[in-house]
Amino acid sequence: MPTNVVMPQMGESIAEGTIVRWIKKVGDSVDRDEPLFEISTDKVDAEIPSPAAGVLTDIKVKEGDTVAVNSVVAVIGAAGETAAQGGATAAQGGGTTDEGSQGGGMPEAAVGQPETSKASAATDPAARVDAADARPSDGAAPAETSGSAGPVSKEELRRQKSSPLVRRIAKEHDVDIQQIQGTGISGRVTKNDILGFIDSEGSTGAKGAPAPQAPAGRTLPAPGPVYKPGENVQIVPMSVMRKKIAEHMVMSAHTSPHVYSVYEVNFGRVSALRDKRKADYEAAGAKLTFTGFVAKAIVDGLRQFPVVNASVDGQNIVYKKDINLGIAVALDNGLIVPVIRKADEKNLLGLSRAINDLAARARSKKLNPDEVQGGTFTITNPGIFGALYGLPLINQPQVAILGVGTIEKRAVVIDDAIAIRPMCNLSLGYDHRLIDGADAGRFLAYIKERLENFDEAWL
Length: 459
What we know:
The protein is an alpha+beta fold. It folds into three domains: 130 residues, CATH 2.40.50.100; 99 residues, no CATH class; 202 residues, Chloramphenicol Acetyltransferase (2-Layer Sandwich). The chain is 31% helix and 22% strand. The strands form five sheets. Strands 10, 13, 16, 17, 18, 19 and 20 form a seven-stranded mixed beta sheet that branches. A five-stranded antiparallel beta sheet has the order 3-6-8-1-9. A hairpin with a 2-residue loop joins strand 14 and strand 15. Helix 3 crosses helix 4, helix 10 packs across helix 11 and helix 10 packs across helix 12. The chain starts with a strand and ends in a 7-residue tail after the last helix.
């Protein structure tokens, strides 16, 4: 029996995904759990395994297309089955990209569903509503879907039409999401939709719409044409990841008033400990890096300065009790920030193992959605490319980010004598809505002291 392959729901708040690349082509044999295609979502890029062994008989969604979760994207037929046979069987079973199947929240069901699930969907009112919600439309909101499931409450409709990020932005700007015509799947309101709505309402002074808290320059046109007719240029569409990075960076720049402080730190003590204990860590299955030392100092600092491990929620301050440390990882086509959860419960060995593991899986696209969510502070390392320091943008809704510059030997004055030491610039970007310069200075001074006097017992 053919098996439908559906767009998996890679997280509770994720409503759609984009097919980035088909790893297999029609007619190829595929084993169960063998990588079948690559997707990109709001949270993570991932390779999706085949839910069954057999032959890929039909690809229903081409590369670059975005579809709702649980939409059928391909069909796996029995071994030896031709593409034509598989496609015909799937058509008889109602397997089209317009229909979704109930995954029940389990990973296996979210990726592949036997054809028999269609029968229950046809008789179950709730299943009919879910299938309609997953169906691409001409912009109509899910509230207009008819069926026997009963009227949809305003709160349910609001959640159907938006992600948690969009709802947070709406709350901060006192915007009713029902006023916005969404451009996403099934009329879903995207980040671009709500940011554009806030700007347009602020510029026109519409009644009941407050002026945006962020500067109104978000939608200002370019000062002139980006290029002239006949000019020798190459136009390349942004990748899904690049578009998401661009959206988030613009939102961060317009959400937080960024301020920066830079401290110079002597890494002599850290360098000596690393050379001394590197072999021990390798024997324990971990690579001891300078990032691990910085992460340990940051975790200790966040315990001492909880205002740096917080978020702004309207007029309230949300202090995070857990320290979830984001470590930025550079990829060939962008940047991703996996998160070490409850980093304060780990020693340097545990932090090093977590950093090594997350970085490796980030580069091989093996991260789970929950591993790139919920961070409370981020470390980024422009120094690996030789930068003396960086001025990174805050990873919202966090309120601070640390940039680690390159470590290089410099001449420094120690006790009125010139000495050569491995020096590094640490730059802290912070949200001035919550963190003042004095707080940032004390935090960085604490980090500097911990690194310059790192106790071997902390290893």
